[in-house]
Amino acid sequence: MPDRAGEARPSVGSAPGPGADTRGGDAGVPGAAAASSADGALRASDVAHAPGEYAESRSRTRPSGTATALGAAGSPTAAATGAAAPGEATHGAAPDRAAAAGVHPDAVAPGRATRAGETLGAGHAADGFAAPSRSVAAEAATDAAADARSRVDDLAAALDAEGVPVHRPELGVLVAAVPADAAARAAARDAVDTVDEERVRLRSAVKSRDGFFTTFCISPYSRYIARWCARRGLTPNQVTTASLITALIAAACAATGTRPGFVSAGVLLIASFVLDCTDGQLARYSLQYSTLGAWLDATFDRAKEYAYYAGLALGAARADGGGDDVWALALGAMVLQTCRHVVDFAFSEANHDATGNTSPTAALSGRLDSVGWTVWVRRMIVLPIGERWAMIAVLTALTTPRITFYALLIGCALAACYTTAGRVLRSLTRRAERTDRAARALAELTDSGPLAELVAKAAPRGRGSYLAPLSAALGTAAVLAGTAAAGFGSWVPVGCAVLYAVLAGVAVAAPLQGPLDWLVPPLFRAAEYGTILILAACSEVNGALPAAFGLVAAVAYHHYDTVYRIRGGTGAPPHRLVRAIGGHEGRTVAVTAAAALLHHQNQGFTIALTALAAALALAVLIESIRFWVSSGAPAVHDESGEPA
Questions:
Q1: Cα dihedral 153, 157, 162, 165 in deg (nearest 10)
Q2: Would you call 381 exposed, middle or buried from its count of C-beta atoms within 10 A (0-12, 13-18, 19+)?
Q3: What's the pLDDT band for 494 if we cut at 50, 70, 90?
Q4: Side-chain half-sphere exposure of 129, counting CA atoms within 13 A
Q5: What is the average pLDDT score of the chain?
Q6: What pLDDT score was predicted for residue 339?
Q7: How far apart are CA 465 and CA 468, in angstroms?
């Protein structure tokens, strides 16, 4: 038994873990191998692990060294295959895979029958930790097999008591057969031979937990597209690129401002999402995983959505009947969507490895999961990528861009209120102890620059339970309210931005380990993006809103890149880059100062925003591409639409 969960080794022949090509609405990382025939050939199981479960400095347990066979219904089963895996002991003619049942091979003596067909539910023998390896006397073999389940449960409880998170993948039904004679071995071989391996591969290609629209409207046929692509030698990266190109064509169609263009845009957006699901299914079907592929998928999802918003805004301006300026709505949708994601990311990082991480709210959510319809309703409420893109596509084809953005803003706002309220309730009712790693991740997510760092060094380092989120909330309210009240061209927003920078420094002066400290990064995002939106909307300068859209898109890319690096276990981008682009508080001060200095100059503010957007985009893209192409770090992307 390993002293630490991280010492357990992955299964022999296991599929690649982190860095797998996780895909848009269909992300998943196979983390176990499966033997599906008597010759011991290894195949990927249908385990869809949550992002970052393995190998990413997560203190997560790894699968034990046991291959499993695929059951007739598509569930993994362990059976004798006639060949022992490396490191497995065999006894005469009985190559017993006793470890699959939590029994050491030495515990099974030749000629002694154990409980063939022992059923182990999800969270037992393959729960991600090594099986106990005590030697048991030969005469106790049958009792050892019968007690395997309780011993594994005891081991899991002991690991939990020691503060080691135990991963319990949803394996369905796992059958462990320990054949000790020719008849039992033949029965096990017959059970394996009845498996329809192609059907299992197709089923395994689809993520087990996904949104309603993706599960019932896309995956039933996209898996067959993935198989078609695999048989023609197409790679997941090629499908990802095709999805991006399709979305860009959809944006161009929307930009025409005509009804046929809007209808074509809606159809092409759905087609792009189908390909977005297909690339992940293709990666799992053909076992083609790459760091570059995961990063491309994570990056292209944001690029497709934001490009489509821009296309709708351009189309509205060019539409028949005089046009309509909806750039403020497009920018608002991008700001709201990005802040929603930062809430999810920050909450996840704050509680990923927290100890004592229980709350009545979480228990209630778990009980609701037992009622099937509530699971789907709660997944739809959060408006995951599948539901969101379907709504945008249908409204684009049938209505106007303004109505589309109104519906998107209302839906995203309701989803944001629901998820944020649920996370706040969990944080207030749980008694979790958050780790230094979580505090470091939250500090990196804040994206603090030189101004906040200077204040943090000078500020008292006393730690208050709610000091950090309170300071961040006050600073955000001050800069947004001051900017909205004073309007474009005033120096009041500059003073409010300076106050915001001071309060931001106070917020990060102490480690972010309080119950609501995960709110600090999304509050900073709201302050920076919201200030840019308000100034551009109030300026009434031609081109200011499109330029602000580009600036927020460049900054949002940097923040998403930070999230993917942290989830991949590599930390935030280099500190020199964060300092060079000013940090969130430095950029806020710079934008407000540009508005005050250039408000008399024709197009001056627009030029300043455009130049700042171009400089930021160039800096962050060069560093991001260099890192992801050369580092080999796992890129983890997930927008699963999990309920609050």
A1: 80
A2: middle
A3: very high
A4: 26
A5: 76
A6: 95
A7: 8
